[in-house]
Specification:
Blueprint: H1 2-12, H2 16-24, H3 28-42, H4 46-62, H5 76-90, H6 97-110, E1 119-124, H7 131-141, E2 145-148, H8 153-163, E3 166-169, H9 173-176, H10 181-189, E4 197-202, E5 207-212, E6 217-222, H11 227-231, E7 233-237, H12 254-257, H13 259-278, H14 289-305, H15 309-320, H16 329-344, E8 348-350, H17 351-360, H18 377-385, E9 392-396, E10 401-407, H19 412-418, H20 424-438
Parallel strand pairs: 1-6, 1-7, 2-3, 3-6
Antiparallel strand pairs: 4-5, 8-10, 9-10
Helix pairs in contact: 2-3, 2-4, 5-6, 5-13, 6-14, 6-15, 14-15
Amino acid sequence: MTRKVNKLTAEAIQSPEQTIVYLSQLSEIEYEQLREGEAKRLKFRIRVLDNLVADARAKNKSIMTSDQPYAGAVDGSLLLDEITEIINKHMILPQGALPAITLWVVLTYVFNAFKICPKLAIISPEKRCGKSTLLDLLGRLTHKSLLSSNITPSALFRAVDLWQPTLLIDEADTFLAGRNDDLIGMINSGHTKRTAVVIRVAGDDLQPKQFSTWAPMAFASIKGLTSTVMDRSIGIHLTRRKEQETVQKTSLDFWDDCQVIRQKLTRWGQDHFESLKSQLVEPPAIANDRAMDNWTPLFTIAGVVGGSWPEEVQSAYEFLNHQGDEETPAVRLLQDIQTIFTQQQCERLHSVDLVRYLVAIDESPWHEWRNGQPITASQMAKMLSAFGIRSKTLRAGVPEKRLKGYTLAQFQDAFSRYLPTISLSGLLQDVTTLQARAVGGSGDLKEVTSPKVVTSVKSV
């Protein structure tokens, strides 16, 4: 035993912090065999090392414990079927969600095999849709789960750095929906292994120190989270179950009931860790590259498990991503501007006219954009500037006026990048054709000032 422990220490332990964490996980006998030599190597007094190890043991015991691996070999396909059955008994889930959640549970045991670890975003439109129940299930099934209804930035990076848990956050909308930029930045940093660090001043000597933010995270929220978090997540959109839909409640012994499952997951993860690293399976290409990155670990796990799981993850991927990117206000603005240019049959519009048309669109956010007030030309200009689109002085209208505005050609790049289903060349051709007809077929381009009333734009 001594020879094995000494070999591990020499090869794997380098920094004092790593040494203390490692020593705190040893038995009393193993630690006694090493304490004097490690104290000498670290240039610590033995009493100081004893105190540091004791503190680390107290922290380890306070929250995080890992399950011992299952004694025998584990059939991955049967194991995932067991997890599916457990979740299915207690939840009514939308199509495609069950395979995604099951594979994400496995991911929490093997996420270090990958360069990207997607979050799990559990979203519902209202209360009592099962978000907390699903988080509770995840807390019993995932690796070193740590459940909380709130967390501060400093608590997040310290908890992740110390325990590398599966972080499960309920009611995330109460503290992530606002301008909590520091916390959101830390959460986003943990999406990619290479960037999953923050630097903070720590210790009595106030020296800068790196803290890891690399850990699986799941968030439950009413409505959506900030777009950057959602972009790094696999989204599960829950709805309130019907009266005739019944589920089982979890028992008081549910944690203990799931212990064998956790042990099997630990064993399967250990046995297949290298295969997962070397046999990455990329999802089929879609327009959203980030979504493809998010699903790569799940496709890889399904591929290594085999059986029906490659087909299961394929079906879940197609269904949960069929709506494409979640629409942001900026993309909605581009869509509405594209519609306005087409329906007004023109190639240029003054800013004041463009705003009038935006506010007139049925069910648009623009008529109550800020504090119940319509969007202004300056607010529109600020949003468009993010796409490199800026207003300029131009002549338009009948009678012709010289005011700030936009031409259709200015939107060419943004339309092609963010509205890929619409061809701008076709849009320009349609505008040209419509205008040619409007002036008697001459083909000359003129500004059309009379608003054309259509189904999506009110008459203004």
